[in-house]
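Backbone-to-sequence.
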């Protein structure tokens, strides 16, 4: 049985990009925003989040800058790039196609 926090494969990048489309955040802020936006259903663990952020940085979809956090700690803040905004559109489109396909499978009549 899947835990409530399990993400569908390939959705983490989409969730990060969408979260950063709302504004600049540090890693913990991204994880917290995803958790809050999902009404505590989705939890992104550090072991998944930071490698994903690094991958998105290398792809040019994010940029990062070291700043002081609201708790006076040095943190890396992430911002969506223009290329990242375009990729967000692609990710949303692909996700919507996948959800539509799953919906078709679920609504197909059962064979007797």
């Amino acid at each position: 049985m899947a835990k409530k926090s399990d993400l569908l494969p390939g959705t983490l990048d989409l969730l990060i990009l969408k979260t950063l489309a709302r504004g600049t955040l540090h890693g913990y802020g991204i994880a917290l925003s995803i958790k809050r936006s999902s009404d505590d259903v989705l939890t992104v663990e550090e072991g998944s989040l930071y490698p994903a952020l690094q991958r998105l940085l290398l792809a040019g979809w994010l940029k990062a800058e070291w700043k002081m956090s609201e708790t006076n700690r040095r943190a890396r803040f992430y911002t969506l790039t223009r290329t990242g905004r375009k990729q967000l559109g692609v990710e949303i489109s692909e996700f919507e196609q996948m959800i539509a396909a799953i919906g078709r499978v679920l609504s197909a009549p059962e064979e007797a």
